[in-house]
Write a structure and sequence with these properties.
The complex is a heterodimer of chains A (about 45) and B (about 240). Chain A is mainly alpha-helical and about 45 residues long. Chain A is about 85% helix and about 0% strand. Chain B is an all-alpha fold and about 240 residues long. Chain B is built from seven helices and no strands. The chains are: A mainly alpha (about 45), B mainly alpha (about 240). At the A-B interface, helix 2 of A face helix 2, helix 3 and helix 7 of B.
């Protein structure tokens, strides 16, 4: 298992790449969810 | 049934809502399948070791950055030429996702460059033109948010987007036109691909996942843009009477 995370010594670069992707796409989805909430709140006024 | 009906933002809104799960769910499944094949089925590369596994996100992200730009310019251009509001809103919606994928391709490229080339960044043709692509997206987004009147913002953005399209073929052919550190295209339309089948499969599945993800988030954002703009228009109309 640790072999898997080690990635032949490239762990930082490989997992770093996927982490950055996850963070950026996750931020996009979260931002959209927040926008939905704001819109709902405005509509109820 | 009149298909032109759906060119109207208010008619398109519920249709888009119904379409979203058909893209979002397959996108999630394909991301899982692509990553599984990429990490558990595809063998270690004999030259690059496991560093090459960055490719499964780097290449699809780079393609998405370019393809979404062309799509954004197309919709912006249609919205400008035919005065089609929905088309311009689509362009605004695409711009955010396109910018994100371009940023992902630059960051993952940098993380791949460090162990394999020994440097995070070089000012070579491929990377410089991709950075310009990111600036074009940022320019489009900031130009639109700087102008209050939506239709004027759409037109200004369209000019920038359409002129900037010239950068996309420059990125694509940069590895052939200039002597560069970046490797040439792995997948060509006419030639056989030069990588092992599971590596190719993982990359293509990830590309499909990125496409479906992009369509889903662009439709979600498009619905919010429609709501916000129609609300603002209603508020302005209420003030005027």
């Amino acid at each position: 298992m640790s072999q898997f995370f080690y990635m032949g010594g490239y762990g930082f670069y490989v997992w770093g790449s996927y982490l950055v992707t996850l963070v950026l796409l996750g931020a996009e989805v979260l931002q959209l969810l927040r926008r939905k909430k704001t819109l709902r709140a405005q509509n109820q006024k | 049934m009149n298909i032109y009906k759906y060119a109207s933002p208010t008619a398109f809104y519920p249709l888009a809502g119904k379409m979203i799960p058909w893209f979002a769910i397959p996108a999630a499944l394909l991301f899982i399948a692509g990553l599984y094949i990429g990490f558990f089925v595809a063998p270690t590369d004999f030259q690059q070791g496991d560093a090459y596994r960055i490719m499964f996100i780097h290449v699809p992200a780079a393609w998405m950055g370019m393809l979404l730009y062309v799509l954004m310019a197309f919709y912006a251009g249609i919205g400008w030429a035919f005065n089609a509001r929905l088309s311009s809103m689509m362009a605004s919606s695409i711009s955010i996702t396109g910018a994100l994928f371009t940023l992902i391709s630059l960051v993952t490229g940098s993380l791949w460059g460090k162990p394999t080339w020994g440097t995070w960044w070089v000012w070579d043709a491929r990377m410089t033109s991709t950075l310009i692509l990111l600036f074009l997206y940022i320019g489009f987004i900031s130009l639109q948010s700087a102008i209050d009147e939506p239709r004027r913002a759409d037109r200004a953005g369209a000019v920038l987007a359409v002129v900037g399209v010239i950068n996309v073929p420059i990125i694509y052919f940069s590895v052939q036109w200039w002597n560069t550190l970046h490797q040439g295209a792995t997948i060509r339309i006419l030639n056989k691909p030069t990588i092992a089948p599971p590596m190719l499969a993982a990359m293509l599945i990830m590309l499909a996942a990125c496409w479906l993800y992009s369509i889903a988030v662009v439709l979600v954002r498009l619905r919010y843009i429609i709501l916000e703009r129609e609300q603002n228009a209603a508020r302005v109309a209420a003030l005027a009477t």
